[in-house]
Amino acid sequence: MMLAGFFFLLLVTDGSTNNSSEHPNLQMNHEDDMNGTDMADTNQRSEDGKSPYSSCSPLEMFKYLNLSKNRYHTMVRPSRDESSTDITLEVLLYAILDVNEKDQQFVSYIWVILRWQGPDIRWVPNDFCNILWIYAPSSVLWRPDITIEEMIEKNKVVESPYLSLSYSGQVYTRTNMVVVTSCRIRVYKFPFDVQSCNLTFKSYIHTVDEIKLFAYDSKWNIKWSLLKMTQTEWLFTNLTISRETVVNFDMKQTVVVYTISMKRRSALYVANFLVPILFFLCLDLTSFLISDSGGEKLSFKVTVLLAVTVMQLILNEILPSSSDRIPLVVIFCIGIFGLMMLSLLETIVVMRLLEKDSASQANKADEDQSLSEDCGDKVGKANCCTELKNRTPSVCNVSVDETPSEQLSKEDNSSQPTEEFNALEKISGELKEMEKTLTQVLHSTKEEGKPGYWTRVAKIVNIVFFFFYVTAVSVLLSVLFILWNEPEEQ
Fold first, then answer.
1. Rounded distance, CA 490 to CA 481, Å?
2. Are 312 and 341 in contact (CB under 8 A)?
3. What are phi and psi of 162, to 5 degrees?
4. In angstroms, what CA-CA distances link 405 with 194, 314, 398, 425?
5. What pLDDT, on a 0 to 100 scale, did the predictor assign at position 199?
6. Side by side, which strands form the sheet with 194-203?
7. Residue 377: its pLDDT value, please?
């Protein structure tokens, strides 16, 4: 009887030794934590091959993996033989929250998924009721120090306190982040611009020999982002991924760059900004139908010009002052503003011409009225001639068609030439020369002296400037349309 008991004890001891050799971590756990009290559970392994830890308890799993804050899992990078730790990175874009042109900032909401291999964290699912995944606090395991190079503000979203552990040793973590990054916003084609912002993932201090980043490249990411993307001002168009090896502060590191491409929804800007300016331009064109005689046309043009100035002030609040190229929308506003200012100056010139014509006609009327009052009748004419006779005899009797010598010969045919006759002959010659000169001057100013001359000039100026105005507007809009539609150089 005692011999049979001895053989039974030897058989049981051998089975326990084989089980411990298959799971060295399990043997260490039971020696440290169970203090021999649970050895009876180990001896309960049945002949059908079931594990003594088949209670499916998470506590048993944590004891088996030896997960605690004071263990080396939290302090040391998981690797064997000083090899690098390969980390797979996956980014899902959930929303584009804001693109700040003035501050050159890009705000997005992303999901960052990291995967790496922990060689010391493994178990056999059959030993634990076929458990494939467990969830452990993030404080009990080492986590890679991955950051975003362009990030300028700390993540405001609370990180998940748990990690996912696979039976094969894979560690899986997901972090939701509101990322505020610096991004170069090109506003040359505003509001028809397409922007590209980068999210560069890298390690803080680990080199390429310690941590290698790999991107999980899949078109599913883009489809998922397009499906989940909320309706904002920006339309997500594409997500490109690139992996590079760079040198930062004398450290060679691998970086993964996610380039987010997006297009601005321009319908609201067209309806609220560009179309009103075009309406103001049409109003300025129709102002050519207003009469130039009054001041209504001038005041109307000034009002339209001030309205365009207000639109430019609104645009100044949107566009950044650090832009290296003048945006096309600014050229659009300046071009229309300049044409309206030229139209205003043309109106001032035309009004001046009309005023000059009115003044010349008023002066002519005053002269005619003065002559009619002074020498309008025979009595007045006689008085004039009487005064002239006192100074020079026979002046009023001189005919217009006769020379002074002919008139003197009629008065006294038989008399000899006198000194007075010789003087009149000399004066007559000089007057003929003056007559030729005055005839040429009066001929050149004949048209100018006609009533309505400046009015006709003003009408010609109006017609010429109108055609110039329409041509300039057409050329400006055509060039801007071509520039807005051609691809922009990155």
1. 20
2. no
3. -125, 155
4. 96, 85, 10, 6
5. 95
6. 146-148, 194-203, 251-264, 234-248
7. 47
Tokens 């078109």 belong to residue:
219
User: Would you give the DSSP letter of residue 151?
Assistant: B
Is the alpha carbon torsion for 242, 243, 249, 250 positive or negative? Answer: negative
Phi and psi for 146 in degrees, rounded to 5? -90, 135
> Cβ(195)–Cβ(490) under 8 Å?
no
Q: pTM for the full model?
A: 0.67
Band (345; pLDDT cuts 50, 70, 90): very high
| Dist CA 324 CA 443 (whole Å) | 61
Question: What is the arithmetic mean of pLDDT over 185-196?
Answer: 90
Dihedral angle, C-alpha 269, 275, 276, 278, nearest 10 °: 140
User: What local confidence, expressed as pLDDT, does residue 161 receive?
Assistant: 86
Contact 85, 211 (CB under 8 A): yes
Q: What's the rounded Cα separation, in Å, for the pair 438 and 299?
A: 44
**CA–CA separation, 108 vs 177, rounded Å?**
8
| H helix intervals, 254-327 | 267-269, 275-286, 296-318
121: three-class secondary structure by DSSP: coil
Please give the order of strands across the beta sheet that includes 162-166.
Answer: 133-137, 162-166, 170-182, 105-117, 85-100, 211-215
What's the CA angle centered on 232, arms 231 and 235, to 5 degrees? 85
CA-closest candidate to residue 100, choices 197, 30, 238: 197
State which of 61-75, 125-139, 183-197, 374-388 shows the largest mean pLDDT.
183-197
Q: Choose among 342, 353, 363, 343: nearest CA to 457.
A: 353
